[in-house]
Amino acid sequence: MGNCCSNYTGMWRALREGNYSIKEINYGGADATVLRTNIGVPVVSLLDQTNIRYVFDMDLVEKVPFTLGNTVLRPAVLGGHCPGMLSNGVEHVRRKKFAMAVIQRSLTNSLFSTMVEHLHAHTSMWATVGHNIYDFEDRVNRFCADVVSKIVLGTTLPYDSVRAWQNGLQSHRPRVPTVSRFRAKSHALRALPVLLRNIRNAPAYEEIIQLGKTCGLTEEEATHEVLYTIVGHALPQVQNPLLSCLAAYAAMPDLDRRQMWEEMNKVLHNVGTFTEAVLDSMKCVESFILEVLRLRPPMEFFFGRARKDFVVKTRDREAFQVHEGEVVCGSAFWAGRDPTSFRVPIMFRRNRFACAGSEALRGSLIFGRGPLSFLPSTENHQCPGLELAMGVLKPSMAWLLMFCKWKLTEEPKWSGKKRSRCGKPDNPMGMVTFKYYPTDVANYYPLPGVTPSNKKGKDNSPNVSSYVSSIL
Length: 472
Ligand code: HEM
What we know:
With 472 residues, the protein is α+β, with helices and mostly antiparallel strands. It has a single domain (7-467), classed as CATH 1.10.630.10. The chain is 46% helix and 12% strand. The chain has 15 helices and 16 strands. The strands form 5 sheets. Strands 1-2-11-8-3 form a 5-stranded mixed β-sheet. A hairpin with a 1-residue loop joins β12 (366-368) and β13. It is globular. Bound molecules: protoporphyrin IX containing FE (HEM). Protoporphyrin IX containing FE is lined by residues 84-85, 96, 99, 103, 229-230, 233-234, 237-238, 241, 298-299, 302, 367-369, 381, 383-385, 388-389.
């Protein structure tokens, strides 16, 4: 499928084929790693570790305001403010400086204790329902929304407004006006003032606005930047990987699940307290999360527009000409499956990033707009949220594996074709059973009103979670 394909045909193909719509599988020969295709807009897709780096080069590729390739952020839903993530030049520099300062500020707060408080509250509620939790994804999304907004703003945002605003934020290109999209937009427009009011009333607001002033942002600009960074970006980027992690854990072979659970249990027993430091010692948890981000990236495409003509020098073809103004689309999905960087890339190997010599692999894991080892600055578009994201994902995973026991309603399966699932399994995840053991937590972390079970080291039956047809 070349450039000649109409935008509508391209859009339908992209909806049907997802990550496969930007690649042509050449059975029997090597796949092309750069090609022109249409996913609703004509794009040059960059599909391996070497080529994807062109989209990160700010001298060659620029952002298009309010636009992410074949999706557009609705300016009205953003109150007319284009986020720093989609800006260039001076505008990007001052907004990125501000975002980095806000994130840094939230990391110095009591992140871990906030996490534990919210994990305890939310998992208690899920366990009260206990069976047939078909809205499990929504519950996890609510938990992430509560905890991230509490960490950054010092208050939780009303979840219904968060969800309505997120749902109506984007529209597809080319535009297909439907009643449901019109409704989503109007709900989002109604949620906007509610969210802004809650941000303005947040305990951290004054401090955040001061940070904005030092970065040259007016109060209104800073408030909208926080809204997009937190609700529009950070939340989905934490919500989706957390769900993908649970699904990936359940989908692992029984032996792997048991071994991972035992490794974590051993560290916890040895140290005797549930702290951030313990999580750092659980190397298997970090490696597991990174492997999920590699194979199931929550943001699969990176877009930009060529500032000038340039040549992509590929491994397989000598040169590929990109013209000024063309949309380029780097694929984290395909770069994460590049066999020159990852051995047996389609296999989920939970210890891939924990083995000896795996440090170098981090330079190949595309995390934000660049490899994991690429430091964020105002001179690039690399995501500055890694530490915060890990600060949420690591304790959540440890908690849900060590102190809870659950069964998914079905075996998680990923076709790679459902882009709207952002790395989660194709079908929505539900829970057949969900149990939570607060007295086990109390053995390692003081919970108000909960007496420790004092079974440290006695429990030989692993609390291993899974999906319904699994034997564990
Ligand atoms: C696993 C979690 C996360 C992933 C996978 C992720 C991914 C990304 C990606 C791919 C971009 C570049 C987007 C583009 O250029 O099209 C980005 C940028 C950004 N991320 Fe994240 N993100 C995550 C978590 C967070 C968190 C928790 C925050 C903080 C609150 C955050 C803040 C930002 C900001 C401010 C940018 C804009 C950087 C710039 O344009 O210079 N991210 N992220």
